[in-house]
Amino acid sequence: MRHLVTMSKPRILSQFSTTNGTSKSTTFSFPLLFSFLLVLSHGSFTTAETVTVNIGAVIDADSRVGKEQKVAMEIAVENFNNTSTQHKLSLHFQAAYAEELIKEKQVQALLAATTWHQSALLADVSTRAQVPVLSLSAAAVTPPLAQLRWPFLVQLASNASHQVNCIASILKSYKWKRVIAIYEDDAYGGDSGMLSLLSEALQSSGTVIEHSLVFPPLSSVSNPDGFVRDEVAKLLVKKSRVFIVLQSSLSLATHLFREANGLGLVGRDSVWVVTESVSSFLDSVDTSVISTMQGALGIDQVYSESGGSFDKFRGKFKGVFRAEYPEEFSYEPGIHALRAYDSVYAIAHAIEKAGGSNRTQKVLLESILSSNFAGLSGEIRFDGGELILQRIPVFRIVNVIGKRYNELGFWSSDLGFREGNTSSYGSESMEAWSDSVHWPGKLRGVPKGWVMPTVATPFRIVIPGNSSFEKFVKVVWSDALGKGYSPPTGFCIDVFHAALSVLQRSYSLPYEFYPKNDTYEALVESVINKTYDAVVGDITILANRSKYVEFTQPFAESGLSMVVPAKPDESKAWMFMKPFTKEMWTVTFLVMVYTMVIVWFLEHQSNPEFRGPWKDQLSTALWFTFSSLFFAHREKIQSNYTKVVVVVWLFVVFVVTSSYTASLTSMLTVPRLQPTVTDIEWLRRSNATVGCDGDSFVKDYLRNVLLFENVIEVGNQENYPKKFKSGNITAAFLELPYEKVFLKEYCDEYTATGPVYRFGGFGFVSTHLNSSLSFGCLENEIQGKKYIAFQKGSPIATDFSEAILTISENGDLKRLEERLFNQLTSCSNYNSTTTEVDSLSLQSFWGLYLTSGAISTLCFLFFLIRAIKKYCDSFRGNPGTMTPSRKGAWNRMARFVRFLRNGGIRSPARAPSIGRTQNLGARDSMKWELVSPSEISDDHLQGPRPPEIEIPTRSE
Q: What is the pLDDT of residue 635?
């Protein structure tokens, strides 16, 4: 326990003594007259009716916080004693050992003005003695069953959850993904306190705490400068440069920033954020401390500085504080002073409310808990021993610059950010304030918060010197010993350079290549163990490594495909049937038959070409419909309804025949290579041997997922044809980028077949194991795309994502791919996946067929309605004939059918010529005049009629 000031200072008693337990001790003895004048200056006398109440306060009088609290409490006691006539307060200060205050001074209430850890210890003592204790600090996370454990403890300060959420919002604004937490170990910012709160608050934005630097109380360290320097030096090996000072005394903060400046940790690309425990003293520290904190961001809770009560307190505080502590740099009261004043005020008014001398400590506790007043630090109300926030606190965000600090804006959990020169909240980010922020090292732009490479310390990038497919990474060695080499080339190298050229518009990224003839697993291990900083190449990243990398935007497709030898397709006897699927052929035939029936029905009434025996009528209709597929028909069409049907049918014919011709032409002109093996199940059943690239994860995938037993490693691209020809392998499984390159070279001999298994991709990769960074072309089994990936939290990952999007949008990536394939042997029949031309299905034509059928049906319905109308009109012209409504249903239907069959709906019709009516039945000599169908009697339609028989009718 640190040795602190111990004081006993009853201001209203006749004796006034101060005992300092530190290296200096002074005892004042005043004459009786001076004591009497002192009492007069307080404006009150201690009479028999006045009850003196002793209050104990445990503070750290050596610290700035303790000094402010001491002066504020004295002012509160003085103000109360000047106004109260029934009670007088006697305030006793102690650095520790609350038992002495309880036993010797008989204090009726305690004020714990130190840390939460010491408040908890004091609460244990006060609970045993049943003395209310008012704590000016609060636990970051309220301990479970705190009220049952410490029933006499009252917390005047709120917990740190809102303050931590403000820090998380700042980090989210600038997308800093990895941070280092720093705190002084007093159980206030420990694992159960602010650190756990911060970790939880950062989860929503994907930010993690990379490292925690814990300091013991600085008073317990014999050599603070050397100790702090050694601890801060441990941060140099960390990649993150975002430092969050969660909880610190002013003394530790002074040492911390001085040593961090000396080690270069408060410079370009670094970020420092301090909480209220430090930022609340920015007004009171001298310029030497401020100079070491340049560019730091700070937050502190906003309290009202308006009103008469605050102005009176502020004026008296500055006078007393200047008189007692002239060595201090600033005399302005902070939030700690305001809370200390409110704590005395709460106890004093609870005493007044509790009544006379017969009150108990429990009654006094209940009076304190029922407090409800507007204090200098805000509204004071309690619930369950904790301060109730009447409104969500607002935090001020400041930026240390020059000799003081600038006020940037404000933040509230329910309202968001508000910039200082605006009047409204609502922004979810403070990134728009970046132009107003002065960052460490006078950096222009937002710091990366990450260790960035320099010319003196460039990225050490290892690349494979013996890649299986040299089109992706190729290293040409100048000697047999593998010492000299030419600059590496290949598709992955080109993509890296293209993205880097975009990235360098914002900042430089110095690097050096180091080719190495080793397995890909060894290359990755060399990055993990910090031998190299990066790896570029066609490196495979397995699923169990994906947790250590952060992927960027993909720059190439991926998947696994089967490649087998190919042979020409000689079975073309039924090629003419392949342009259409079976469903397409069936529906086309049905639509044609339906159209034929509609044409026959519409035409046989008035068109002689469609009359005659049933066999002749059907053959004529079928020939008419089918011949329209190839040439113009010779039969003339007379019905307007038929013309509509035929026009739509001819359009259908045009589209279908054109599509058929195009599809058949493609099938006949494109060379067709048939794979020798198409079924993976056959390969498994026959226990065939398949090949793959030995330096990739494909071998394990074939065995564990596709369940192949005989899998061999082929190695270089040139070895695959040899293995196929020698019969060592029946099929090979290649990743799609490799497959494209291989089939481009050997398109006349091999083809791809079977399904494509999507699982990974090429990109640049880095790992955060042991804080090392790496790039590389990779396979990611999780997402099934080609990515660039970086260390978790690395800002370079986001920058490379933007760079890849840029080269993809401006066409640079496409040109790199084209250049890759243009370097290969050109094949006219090259197709990386299949040589088959898909047959046309019904899905492409169902709308056309539906339209044709609908129009044909509508025309049929219109014609039928017209026929029914004509049929009914024919009876109205012959009054002696029984109307259809008076006959049976079957008779009516039969008569209507005969009516249609005999041409009762012919239109237009011709009347017979005069003098030739007797030859009306001879079809080859018929002459018709244009007449209305209703004018044609049954005599004209059916020839001579039998003698009429008069049928008597029954009179009604």
A: 57
